Task: inverse folding
């Protein structure tokens, strides 16, 4: 036996001992956490219980490399929480239906093609999360889960929904990034979903929306963006607490003018609907002037040009630049510092571009923080930035779901779109969290500074990941490292103290140090890490509760602003504020 074999044997023995200790402890606590131990098999020792042991109520075995869950899982009949996310599971056993007390099942980031019909017997189930799998069809009797409150199935391959029947407690449905064509299939009329508050259908193949959505009297948020919808039913006006509606990137020919009667609507986005003609846009905007609660009505630059100055007297309208949908590059939205005043003038740009990469939920991130930043940097001092929002509705880590097997080809369209926009600015600051942080590293060559919060680098070992092959994930890791290493940007990877996130960040830092050692001329180290005393993957969210996150971004922005002005770029080149920042005043 070689030294390496001895080392492997010792490591395996240590892992077995750790697992055994945790299982033994669970005999008294009823809770077992085996997350992130690189397990390849489900520990059968879990089932060796006696009458003196506390019943297992919470089992977390996510972020491993487990391929199979044994039928014996059904013997844990007092189990309430089961975490299986981030493994290599292709199916769940039928015996899961025996878990009558199960309240939460988290199996996102696996390779599941379906769910067992028996899961419909888990009548205590309140949370079901199977995002990022390969599921084409949900169980026919899903409506039997009458206690279900959250149904999360984004980033799968769903073609339709089963009849949701009388799921009175369902408050949150997330189906973005699927292939659903018809919401009315299987007799769905939604009249019994009395508790539904958020409904996300972004990035499907819907051509129409049934008027029965008007039955959802508690609905607050409706995301229908990035579909093929031609018309929106007027019944939406009947929703008494509807606050936000996303309709961008569809095939709309008309707009629901009756929405002016809504007493609650505050946000509505209709960008990138190329088939809306001038008369339709003008009539709709004229009607929406009477929508008393409306704070934001998002239109794009082409729509603004169609109606000329018809929007100038409506303060709710915000104009953004969006790419043509024909290039299939995904969601890009450029919002300029001067807003509507410079939206139609391509020559007017701020000195710095901030690129905000969205995370797994598939919607724009960082908007609230960037508004706070705007107040902090002080408009009176002349400092300014434009913002490019980039999202991946397919939950594909910005590769798309074409599944060609060629990662470089899959990400090329987004990379080209980023290059086209970023090249118009001398300084570009990237912001990304989790999946968005991964993108900020992969596309770093187009930036001058990167702030990446808890990225996934080695997707095969990551706690959150797409449903792709191990070979694809290895290719992606190589592409990401190449993107980060060939970039001249100053890159800072922020992590909490969670070992998993620290290990992911260290992969990039190690590759950077190795590159520096191998290079004939060592360049200044540009990739570094910053650890925060937060034991949580959602680091950015925790830091945003106080001032720490906005201060981190503010410092990065001001550095890039000064660099932009010093290099002779930007509208405020000769301002007094600029001279003061450069120490010349």
Result:
């Amino acid at each position: 036996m070689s030294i390496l074999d001895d080392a492997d044997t010792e490591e395996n023995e240590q892992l077995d001992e750790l697992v055994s200790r945790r299982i033994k402890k669970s005999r008294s606590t009823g809770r077992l956490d085996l997350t992130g131990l690189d397990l390849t098999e489900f520990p059968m020792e879990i089932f060796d219980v006696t009458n003196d042991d506390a019943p297992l109520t919470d089992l977390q075995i996510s972020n491993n490399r487990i391929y199979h869950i044994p039928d014996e899982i059904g013997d844990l009949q007092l189990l309430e929480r089961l975490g299986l996310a981030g493994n290599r599971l292709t199916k769940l056993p039928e015996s899961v239906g025996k878990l009558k007390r199960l309240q939460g099942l988290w199996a996102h980031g696996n390779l599941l093609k379906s769910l067992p019909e028996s899961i419909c017997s888990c009548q205590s189930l309140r949370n079901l999360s199977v995002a990022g799998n390969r599921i084409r069809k949900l169980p026919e009797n899903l409506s039997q889960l009458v206690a279900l409150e959250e149904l999360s199935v984004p980033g799968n391959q769903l073609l339709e929904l089963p009849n949701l029947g009388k799921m009175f407690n369902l408050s949150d449905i997330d189906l973005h990034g699927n292939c659903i064509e018809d919401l009315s299939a299987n007799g769905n009329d939604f009249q019994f979903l009395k508790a539904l508050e958020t409904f996300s259908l972004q990035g499907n193949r819907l051509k129409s929306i049934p008027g029965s959505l008007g039955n959802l009297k508690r609905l607050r948020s409706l995301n229908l963006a990035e579909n093929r919808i031609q018309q929106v039913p007027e019944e939406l006006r009947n929703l008494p607490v509807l606050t936000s509606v996303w309709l961008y990137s569809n095939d709309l020919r008309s707009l629901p003018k009756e929405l002016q009667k809504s007493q609650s609507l505050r946000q509505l986005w209709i960008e990138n609907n190329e088939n809306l003609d001038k008369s339709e846009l003008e009539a709709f905007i004229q009607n929406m002037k009477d929508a008393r609660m409306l704070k934001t009505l998002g239109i794009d630059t082409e729509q603004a040009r169609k109606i000329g100055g018809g929007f100038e007297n409506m303060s709710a309208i915000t104009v953004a630049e969006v790419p043509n949908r024909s290039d299939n590059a995904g969601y890009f939205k450029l919002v300029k510092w001067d807003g509507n005043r410079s939206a139609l003038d391509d020559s007017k740009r701020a000195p710095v571009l901030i690129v905000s990469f969205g995370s797994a939920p598939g919607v724009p991130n960082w908007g609230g923080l960037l508004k706070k930043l705007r107040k902090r940097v002080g408009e009176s001092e002349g400092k300014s930035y434009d913002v490019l929002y980039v999202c991946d509705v397919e939950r594909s880590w910005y590769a798309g779901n074409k599944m060609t097997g060629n990662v470089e080809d899959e990400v090329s369209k987004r990379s080209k779109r980023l290059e086209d926009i970023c090249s118009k600015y001398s300084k570009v600051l990237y912001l990304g969290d989790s999946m968005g942080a991964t993108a900020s590293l992969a596309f770093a060559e187009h930036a001058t500074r990167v702030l990446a919060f808890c990225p996934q680098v080695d997707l095969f070992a990551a706690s959150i990941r797409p449903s792709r092959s191990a070979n694809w994930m290895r290719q992606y890791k190589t592409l990401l490292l190449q993107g980060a290493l060939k970039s001249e940007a100053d890159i800072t990877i922020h992590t909490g103290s969670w070992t998993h996130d620290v290990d992911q960040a260290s992969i990039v830092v190690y590759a950077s140090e190795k590159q520096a050692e191998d290079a004939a001329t060592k360049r200044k180290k540009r990739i570094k890490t910053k650890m925060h005393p937060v034991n949580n993957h959602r680091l950015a969210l925790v830091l945003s509760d106080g001032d720490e996150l906005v201060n981190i971004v503010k410092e990065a922005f001001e550095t890039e602003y000064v660099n932009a002005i010093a290099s002779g770029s930007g509208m405020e080149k000769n301002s007094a504020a600029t001279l003061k920042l450069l120490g010349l005043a």
The longest strand covers residues 385-391. DSSP finds eleven helices and 20 strands in the chain. Residues 3-29 form the longest helix (27 residues).
